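Agenda item 2: glyoxylic acid complex prediction
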Amino acid sequence: MKPSIYITRKLPDECVLELQEKFDVKMWDHEEISVPREVLFSEIEEVDALFTVVSDPVTEELLAKAKNLRVVANMAVGYDNIDIEAATKRGIYVCNTPDVLTETTADLTFALLLAAARRVVEAAEFIKEGKWQSWSPFLLAGHDVYQKTIGICGMGKIGEAVARRAKGFGMEILYHNRSRKPQAEQVIGAKYCSFDELIEKSDFVVALAPLTAETKHMFNADVFKKMKHSALFINASRGAVADEASLYDALVDKQIAGAGLDVFEQEPISADHPLLKLANVTALPHIGSASIDTRRAMIHICVENIQRILTGQEPKTLVNTQLLER
Ligand code: GLV
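Presented output:
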């Protein structure tokens, strides 16, 4: 019997052709609707490989049902949707899609920063709603970006790529990270500082740290209070790095000037969510890596990782590398 694979989202046929030639492939047949939990719980029982997306929680309970599972290939660089410890304990490889999405995600992060600063989305809605009556001195006036201070919290590859873009805008670049990044300091001129210094000095506080137990709600009421009243908070990592209730209060109380959010604690966020009612929130539906080329490249890495593991080779981008040491 051929090894079998379950893919939790409908993907273009040509992207999975390689897999179909060698394996038994089953795919959830909706592009924009998550696979129901009961379907996933049933499919996982027999499959050898699972192809997931960020909105699929791969919990201990789900993994406990799997009798043959050897790999979970997650179409994202982040893997907070997967219980890595539970997978590792069972000898299941978890793979992600780093590198290919770095520049695309940095582009979107910077686009979000610019859009929030210069009220681009609000202005676009304004003109289409027929509200433009005349040119006026402060109509939709926003915040300058050029030569302002950006504070990047989480200086991984995407953070560095955002810093490079900021350099082009003549910005002062501060960063906070678990480890120092000498390359970013020497080449881009980024300055390492404490988290407190970063939030106090930055005009744009950019969250790019992965979601972990340590980073959950690291942007809380105390943090928003310490930020400049003129500062904007940009989140392109995971919604839960910020406490959304405190963010809402900080925006309403004008403790900070605005926010650009590509990610939310609960996704998809409801259109009735209070944050989406605020004019000083620029919101996007988690599209950081969403260029056609990059999304294809991400699928390709997942396909390659699955193929390699099911044919006894080392995966290309393994998260739980301790499995290779066993
Ligand atoms: C998307 O959010 C990713 O982690 O790639």
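Discussion summary: The two ends are 27 Å apart (CA to CA).
Owner for follow-up: CH.
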